[in-house]
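Supplementary notes for students who missed Thursday's class. We covered one full example, reproduced here. Read the sequence, then the structure, then the short commentary at the end.
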Amino acid sequence: MIWWVWAGTAHAERPVTYTEALDAAAGNAIGVVDARLLRDRAEAAVRASQGRFDPLYTLDASTSRSRTQGFFQGFPYTNLRRAWVVSNNLSGSAGTGTSYSVDFSVDRNISEFTTDLGAGPTTQLQDAYRSDVSVSVTQQLLKGIRFRYNTQNVVAARNALTAAELTVEQQRQGVLYDAASAYWSWVYAVELRDNAQEALSVAEEALRVGRLQVERGQLAPVEATRLEAALVQARQAALDTDVSAEQAADKVLLLMGESPDQVVLPATEAGDVPSFDLDPERAAAVARESNLDLRVARQQLDTARIQLANSKHATLPTLSATGATGVGSQRCPPGTTNADCTVGNTLDAIGGLLQDDNQPFWTVGGTFSVPLGNRSAAGQRDQAAADVARAERQLADLERVVDGQVQSQVRVLSSARQRTELADANLRLAEETLKAEEALAAAGRSIQKDVLEARTNVERAKAEAAKARTDYRLAQARLLQLQGQLQIE
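Structure (token representation):
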């Protein structure tokens, strides 16, 4: 088939291929762009959910100064206290239900006690450097020991990301089908316009020849009138089909994200139709595996099942065991009266952690708690169970719907293929009939009415052949969409 450029067109037409139309539509559709942005947001949400297990480092430093007065066994005293402390803490939790904390601190405490026992005031100085390091681990033994339960926020975020990715593909498949439908409708409209223009040219030539025959007395005047009426009808058809072709082109351009004030023509033909039939069962099997609606429903069912498992786990009591161990060291500077200190400073206090006179400690404990009645967790478990049952029912119903749609579409595709064969045969017969009528008319054995009817039948057969091919392409695109397989060729 050769695409023609209509004489009334002021500018050269830009060819647009099927692939170009689908690619532009998928890249510019608002729904696809928005779905991609939501997918990017879901990716960030996954990273944010994983941050729960990031270790937390805390550095705390403080200094203080205080003065207190009172009585000791009836004698007045004054206490001047100065201190500073620097502490470090590293804490976090793991998906195994384990939480940990590592602490390291250094401090200095200076206390001056001034006491008047009746013989005049006396002052005692207590000055000590101290360092401590400790490790604490808490392990959940019932609720909270399950890895999937502790990472449920991460799992939920990943499921949301999967859903967002499926939504992107859903939107993309829908846009591709809309573009394919618009493109093949445009191809059909342009073929009708081409056929109408060709019929117009034939009608003009037939009227010119008919008028000459009337002037020579070879043809009755009424036949010229019939030819003129046929020309009027051809002009009307050419005008109508031109408007339809322009409207179809505008729709394609809008889907491509371009301005409709362009002169374009389709550069991809509907082409020949394959001669083989599809296997409905095989087509349905592909759809059950790849259909986007089914994949979304399965993902929702998986999410509901995970939530149910977590809800069941949440009904358990809480039982945790905690173990802590550490060591301390204390040193005093020269000249102090603190009898329990050895001479030192901050570095000595830190180094003393490894000395024989350090001060080790350890503790072991446990905590058990259970809400009496536990109605909140039990209620959430029952809700999750209902959600699973509902998701299973929806998936089963959707599988039946998709199976029915696919098998119906396979029948539509097979019917379109058969109609293409019939339309081609009908066109061939109509063209042969037209040649015979034209030969009879030239020999004076037939009237122009019969020739005009034969031409009308040829035009109708051409339109039916073009419609059958584009209908096949539309049915093919719809089947591919149902299978989640519609791609940019």
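Commentary. The chain has a mean pLDDT of 87. The chain is about 55% helix and 20% strand. If anything here is unclear, bring it to office hours.
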